[in-house]
Design brief:
The structure holds two protein chains of two kinds. By secondary structure, chain A is of the alpha/beta class. In chain A, 40% of the residues lie in helices and 17% in strands. In chain A, helix 3 (148-161) runs parallel beside helix 4 (176-186), helix 4 (176-186) packs parallel to helix 5 (202-219) and helix 10 packs parallel to helix 11. Chain B has two domains: 56-132 and 169-249, Glutaconate Coenzyme A-transferase (3-Layer(aba) Sandwich); 260-497, Glutaconate Coenzyme A-transferase (3-Layer(aba) Sandwich), CATH 3.40.1080.10. The chains are: A alpha/beta, B alpha/beta.
């Protein structure tokens, strides 16, 4: 085979690229583009650079461009060349556009994780602007089996070039061999977190983790890469604790209810009674392993009230976040996961008491007449961080609040059950 | 077409032609720099004795009316755009003019729409010499390609009124599509199968044209109430089977954006308006009917409800979203120049608080004041903005003329003019070093809201101070531009325009020449 194509026509911000390898004549580019008069020579120049970098000296390249950004064009060109020469060892990496933030770390807020279909470039450049806590560049269910290779390169280039802002940059890999191929392509460009779908056993995680560590050593990456397993089956729920504690790099457990309900032979309902056990079991397993618990996606984009209700329930269950498929869901999720006034007042008192105790080197923390245990302090700090991140409390809240020395009214202030 | 043009540089630093279609026009001298002198233009004196005592001015058909009106080659014929993209009458009008063998008409519409692509044939064969008015979509493309015999003149709604009052444009025959009319010529826009709301864009034409023809598909017995156009100004009335396609007269633009990025822009704009204190009791605003503007209205409405704030008035183009605000008591009035959907039309017909306006009340430069400058905040679009906040609304970065000015220039005079725009479109950066065509001087653009951040014009230190600590993503235009250029792979090549070929001129609100639109391609 000496010709192949990649990408899509009639899809905004994408392009259809066809490469025909030749034996002589250099690189000839034919371009049809809605931005031809403004970026035509850039596009042609990029095509030549990519092909030369991949070691293709002679080819006819046809590009039908719908306003694709350079990182997209480069990925499509490389995909087409790789489809002609699958064993190609060279790659074309676009210049990194910015320095990476420091890794978000295991304690990063994960209230919202926005799924981005891995082969649809138009959603990438602005995803971070909507301030999700995490973006998931998806190579698995949202990508057609025939397009896995193209999506992989597109996601690789996006991770190098696109600024996702404060969001934790997650990549959902495929299952099995395909997933290992995903890792080889993507670990070198340093996603923050690898999302592993359909987890049922600790071995799955151990294998992925081992491969990540091997590649990190090979390409000399010091940056830690976290793991987020998704549990999507009855067996997975059964083994959830084992999965959650399979690696110290696991930051959270997520539940995928679409597959889970199918697996147990139930119908997924809005009320979600069929998954009550699974969700509670997952929260328990995650918390037992000391990691966050993340609820499934809410897939009806137009049902604002349903989403808010679903988030309130998830929060009440002990979940730390919710998946979403449209940026407009983010604000609703963050609002629903924001602590309420009562929780905030309590958390502020606990935090101030803790800080005062630290200052005077006291081992015992007290609010009013009540002794405070370390887990309560941690939860208070977490609630406050959430409240600040949700914009319900200013980051300089200490300016307005003083520690109450008199015993607090336990009726109104103390959270139940503590 | 002249190969070489004599050009002059105006106060905005732009080269503009000495003459357009053989006539000299004053150069732009700066915002507010022109003090007009002399008297306004006036229509010829008429007498009621020349008109039928029974008030019946009905004539057989449009051809007959045009003949009676004395249509000749080289005349100026005007139309209004209230029928929007559903307008059938204007196309029919030029079919008739063509069949009469008349040529070299100056068409003076208040705006054009893609439905007027039909007229390309009459631009090609010389029935129409040139257009003075917006050149949208296919007409703009045709003009950019150099197909029009004369040169286009682009004016805002207010400038069109000004040009008529100055006598700069003398309308020989005004053809006014009327969704309801009586035989005397009283006309209304709120009734009938082609109901479109107000008819304000035809007001100046009805007052100043030599001859006025009202065309209706809904002849009602005298009196046609409420009359937006007064029969006392009308020469002839024509009844036709249809004026337009109702589905396209009021719809199309009023679709709320589903784009998350446009929604984010709207959200930022609404938060800005709230944070800087513009959103307070008895305030006023104007937003267009584009997707981002509509999303802005909805977000602002939510914020008003949360805070219990009511507006004194909002400016149309009206949509169901504004009408809902009126019904819910969130605004006391809608002052409305055009209705964009059925809800707007019905509301104007049924609710006395939904008031029709015209370019005279809203925008006219020669008025003793106008509403636009009294509005607290206007949210507008643009195709390009430069680092000094100068903005373009008629051409794209590739030089193509694709949009009219509408009320855009006039609305820049609001107390806070916000351009709510994406930072790039299809890889093309919107914040540029130099706008392809200057339509709005940067000193009037107060804020640029993009999905990447909000830039406040440094001239507005009051807004800068008010926005401090708001938590909004405030950035400079330079910062936003740098981000976008990184993504888009650097600045684009210059637009492939041929500066030897002038295809149209852009007027400023005072009638001066602000900039030039050049031909594109070979």
């Amino acid at each position: 085979m000496n010709r192949a194509s990649a990408g899509r026509r009639d899809s905004r911000s994408d392009c259809l690229v066809e490469v025909e390898a030749r034996t002589k004549g250099g690189i000839v580019v034919e371009l049809a583009s809605k931005v031809k008069s403004l970026y035509g020579s850039d596009i042609t120049g990029l095509a030549v650079s990519v092909l030369e970098a991949l070691g293709v000296p002679h080819a006819r390249v046809t590009i039908q461009d719908e306003g694709a950004l350079p990182f997209v064009l480069a990925a499509r060109l490389e995909s087409a060349v790789r489809r002609i020469q699958p064993s190609l060892s060279k790659e074309y990496l676009p210049d990194p556009a910015r320095q990476l933030f420091s890794p978000p770390g295991k304690e990063h807020l994960r209230r919202s994780r926005l799924y981005l279909p891995g082969n649809q470039p138009k959603f990438f450049p602005n995803a971070g602007l909507h301030r999700p806590d995490c973006v998931i560049l998806d190579l698995e269910d949202s990508v057609h089996p025939d397009e896995k290779d193209a999506a992989r390169l597109l996601v690789r280039n996006a991770l190098r070039v696109v600024d996702f802002g404060y969001a934790e940059r997650m990549v959902r890999i495929n299952q099995g061999r395909e997933g290992i191929t995903d890792l080889h392509c993507l670990v070198p460009v340093m996603p923050d977190t690898v999302v592993v779908p359909k987890c049922e056993s600790a071995e799955q995680i151990i294998e992925v983790d081992r491969e990540i560590q091997r590649i990190r050593r090979e390409v000399k990456i010091s940056r830690e890469i976290l793991i987020l397993p998704i549990i999507e089956s009855a067996l997975g729920i059964h083994n959830a604790y084992e999965v959650a504690s399979a690696s110290k790099r696991i930051c959270a457990l997520a539940i995928g209810l679409e597959d889970y309900t199918a697996d147990i032979g139930a119908e997924r309902t809005v009320q979600g009674r069929e998954s009550l056990y699974a969700r509670q079991a997952l929260v328990n397993a995650a918390k037992a392993a000391g990691v966050q618990a993340l609820d499934s996606v809410f897939s009806d984009v137009d049902d604002v009230e349903g989403l808010a209700e679903s988030c309130r329930e998830a929060r009440a269950f002990g979940f730390d976040g919710k998946g979403c498929i449209h940026p407009r869901q983010i604000r609703i999720i963050h609002q629903a996961f924001a602590p309420t006034g009562k929780d905030i007042a309590w958390a502020q008192q606990v935090t101030l008491a803790f800080e005062a105790a630290q200052k005077s080197k006291m081992a015992v923390v007290a609010v009013g007449s009540r002794m405070i245990d370390p887990p309560v302090v941690r939860r208070a700090q977490r609630d406050l961080a959430l409240a600040v991140a949700s914009g319900v409390v200013p980051s300089n809240w200490r300016a307005d609040i003083t520690l109450q020395s008199a015993p607090m009214d336990s009726e109104t202030v103390l959270p139940e059950g503590e | 077409m002249a190969a070489r043009r004599v050009m002059s540089r105006n106060a905005a630093g732009r080269l503009v032609p000495k003459k357009i279609n053989g006539h000299t026009h004053p150069l732009f001298k700066g915002v507010g720099a022109i003090v007009p002198r002399g008297k306004k233009a006036a229509p010829p004196v008429r007498s009621c004795a020349q008109y039928p005592d029974d008030g019946n001015k009905l004539v057989k058909d449009l051809r007959k009316a045009l003949t009676l009106a004395g249509l000749r080659s080289g005349m100026t014929v005007s139309t209004h755009h209230h029928l929007r993209n559903g307008d059938v009458l204007t196309n029919h009008l030029f079919d008739v003019i063509h069949s009469m063998g008349v040529r070299n008409i100056r068409w003076f519409p208040s705006a054009s729409f893609p439905c007027h692509e039909h007229l390309v044939r009459y631009l090609s064969d010389g029935t129409i010499h040139h257009i003075e008015g917006s050149m949208n979509g296919p007409l703009g493309r045709f003009v950019s390609g150099g197909g029009m015999r004369g040169e286009g003149v682009l004016r805002s709604h207010g400038t069109r009124y000004q040009a008529i009052q100055d006598g700069e444009v003398h309308v020989d025959i005004a053809v006014i599509a009327a969704p309801a009319a009586d035989v005397f010529g009283n006309a209304s826009g709120v009734e009938g199968p082609s109901a479109c709301g107000p008819l304000g864009f035809a007001l100046a034409d009805s007052l100043y044209a030599d001859r006025v023809i009202v065309v209706t598909d809904n002849l009602v017995p005298f009196p046609c109430i409420p009359w937006a156009i007064q029969g006392n100004n009308v020469d002839y009335v024509v009844s036709v089977p249809t004026l337009g396609d109702p589905a396209k007269i009021v719809s199309g633009t009023t679709v709320l954006t589903r784009s998350p990025d446009r929604q984010l822009i709207a959200e930022y704009a609404a938060r800005f308006v709230e944070s800087v204190g513009i959103m307070k009791d008895n305030f006023s605003f104007q937003a267009g009917a584009g997707g981002t503007s509509l999303a802005f209205v909805l977000r602002l409405k939510e914020k008003m409800k949360e805070r219990g704030i009511k507006a004194r008035f909002v400016r149309g183009g009206s949509t169901v979203y504004l009408v809902d605000m009126l019904k819910e008591g969130l605004t006391e009035y809608i002052l409305d120049g055009q209705a964009f959907d059925q809800a707007g039309v019905r509301s104007m017909r049924d609710d006395p608080r939904h008031v029709p306006t015209s370019p005279f009340t809203s925008y006219n430069y020669h008025g003793k004041g106008n509403f636009a400058s009294m509005v607290d905040v206007a949210v507008l679009g643009a195709t390009e903005v430069d680092l000094n906040y100068n903005a373009n609304v008629v051409t794209h970065s590739d030089g193509m003329l694709l949009h009219g000015i509408g009320g855009w220039q006039d609305c820049l005079f609001s107390k806070c003019a916000i351009l709510a725009i994406p930072s790039f479109r299809d890889r093309i950066p919107v914040i540029v070093d130099r706008v392809t065509t200057l339509c709005g001087p940067g000193e009037l653009v107060d804020v640029v809201v993009t999905e990447r951040g909000i830039a406040i014009n440094p001239l507005r230190d009051d807004l800068m101070a008010a926005a401090k600590g708001s938590g909004l993503p405030l950035k400079s235009l330079e910062e936003i531009q740098a981000e976008v250029l990184r993504l888009c792979g650097g600045p684009p090549s210059p637009a492939p325009v041929d500066t030897n070929r002038v295809v149209a001129a852009v007027k400023w609100v005072d009638g001066t020449l602000l900039d030039t639109v050049y031909g594109v391609g070979g």
